[in-house]
Amino acid sequence: MKDEKKMKVVVNQTLTFGERPAPFTHSDLERLINSPNGSLLLTDEGNHHIRLLNIDHQNRQYLIRVDGYDFTVQLQRPLDQTVKTLGLDTVITRDQTEVHAPMPGQVIACHVQVGDEVSDGSPLITLEAMKMENVVQSISSGVVQSIHASIGDTVAKGAVLIQLQLPK
């Protein structure tokens, strides 16, 4: 198969088959899409009637019906798996009330006080990690409600540094 690629197959977001050759080529999918009655899959356990119900090309997800049961099948490329492992698949919302430490480090400066109004991008706290200074900025507008770290404190990655109250 010329366009075969190694992909991870995930069924119903829980059952994973590991890396396998892509189960369908583009032409196989076209035949299944254009077949009004679906297709017949022959396995060692017997024959199974398969029908493709929906395709989400952007997310490489397929809703298929096998013998009357619906399954969501997602194909994950190695790049997709790496992005998920690194945590880059999550969306950061701009309405966060907690500001977290992006890395472990020591607090060397606090640029705000409780009650200060901050906007998106305002400097809040400076951390020193590996002899480098990193300014933690606000990603939301709001009022500083509480500060959970003081100058000299050592904080872990993900520790809550500042609590904001968002404008109503």
Description of the molecule:
With 168 residues, this protein is mainly beta. The chain folds into two domains: 6-85, no CATH class; 98-165, RNA polymerase II/Efflux pump adaptor protein, barrel-sandwich hybrid domain (OB fold (Dihydrolipoamide Acetyltransferase, E2P), Beta Barrel), CATH 2.40.50.100. Helices cover 10% and strands 48% of the residues. The protein is built from two helices and 14 strands, in the order E-E-H-E-E-E-E-H-E-E-E-E-E-E-E-E. The strands form three sheets. A six-stranded antiparallel β-sheet has the order 2-1-6-5-4-3. The protein is elongated and about 70 Å long. Mean pLDDT is 75; it is low at 1-5 and 15-30.
Based on CA atoms alone, the radius of gyration comes out at: 25 Å
In total, the number of strands is: 14
For the largest beta sheet, what order do the strands appear in spatially? Answer: 2-1-6-5-4-3
Structural class: mainly beta
Domain tally: 2
Biggest sheet: strands, sense, closure? 6 strands, antiparallel
What is the general shape? elongated
| Average pLDDT, all residues | 75
Regions with little confidence, pLDDT below 50 for 5+ residues: 1-5, 15-30
Q: Helical stretch count?
A: 2
Distance between the terminal alpha carbons, to the nearest Å?
57 Å
Secondary-structure element order, as H and E?
Answer: EEHEEEEHEEEEEEEE
Approximate strand percentage: over 45%
Q: State the helicity in percent bands.
A: 10-25%
